[in-house]
């Protein structure tokens, strides 16, 4: 089975490549070049002739999207359209990764795939348009909407995937960390998301004919403020923080997020269970593992720094 990834820099792509390495019979290629160069993308895809194209490429830094909306449209909406056309020409299936940000506010229970979306920000709108481009052109596609992703990788400041590192960085500031107590979301470990993507691909390769849009997120929605508290408590136990850090829960309005982020965007994940037998997992054990990874890396970095330190006179 041959898979082609559109990029290798995001934490999701790195996690996928790492996960795929341990699976016999699964071979991955990654696009090398400027993602704006559609001709080169098509050339590499044609040369690779993959069975599946996995599109993890997106512009998801909410703090920067409003200043660079053209880039958001290019990566989140126009690129998926190009990929759908290329997939159609090559006869490849397209796995397009989307986000719970497309759905807007959920008011009557968990949001289902068939429900009407109401994106509240440019990111959600561009991701929705990317979904539509794929959905309207290509039959053999999977659009997978994921909950808010996290892992223990270093934060490069260019995406939403460095959620844990961003929380820890803010917690180290002199003032108490402020987080929205009225915004609830579904944390989703990148390792768990990779498990789901591979499971879908394996079943499709074995002959499953369940194409379309699916939801996946970690079990148990939680407020942003309560999640930050969980992160800080675990970090304090591993001495990543001093033990005096506090989270002050405030309103989305106080944080300037009212009308820009949905207060509730819980997704119903029953469809992926019914069609693929994929059960939701709790994000809590993965959060412990992520903090452990961050702590171990911090310890290793400190040991290297100590070894490189000049001996005192």
TrEMBL record:
<comment type="function">
    <text>Catalyzes the reduction of dTDP-6-deoxy-L-lyxo-4-hexulose to yield dTDP-L-rhamnose.</text>
</comment>
<feature type="domain" description="RmlD-like substrate binding">
    <location>
        <begin position="25"/>
        <end position="294"/>
    </location>
</feature>
<comment type="pathway">
    <text>Carbohydrate biosynthesis; dTDP-L-rhamnose biosynthesis.</text>
</comment>
<dbReference type="InterPro" id="IPR036291">
    <property type="entry name" value="NAD(P)-bd_dom_sf"/>
</dbReference>
<protein>
    <recommendedName>
        <fullName>dTDP-4-dehydrorhamnose reductase</fullName>
        <ecNumber>1.1.1.133</ecNumber>
    </recommendedName>
</protein>
<comment type="similarity">
    <text>Belongs to the dTDP-4-dehydrorhamnose reductase family.</text>
</comment>
<dbReference type="GO" id="GO:0019305">
    <property type="term" value="P:dTDP-rhamnose biosynthetic process"/>
</dbReference>
<dbReference type="Pfam" id="PF04321">
    <property type="entry name" value="RmlD_sub_bind"/>
</dbReference>
<keyword id="KW-0521">NADP</keyword>
<keyword id="KW-0560">Oxidoreductase</keyword>
<dbReference type="GO" id="GO:0009243">
    <property type="term" value="P:O antigen biosynthetic process"/>
</dbReference>
<dbReference type="GO" id="GO:0005829">
    <property type="term" value="C:cytosol"/>
</dbReference>
<dbReference type="GO" id="GO:0008831">
    <property type="term" value="F:dTDP-4-dehydrorhamnose reductase activity"/>
</dbReference>
<dbReference type="InterPro" id="IPR005913">
    <property type="entry name" value="dTDP_dehydrorham_reduct"/>
</dbReference>
<dbReference type="InterPro" id="IPR029903">
    <property type="entry name" value="RmlD-like-bd"/>
</dbReference>
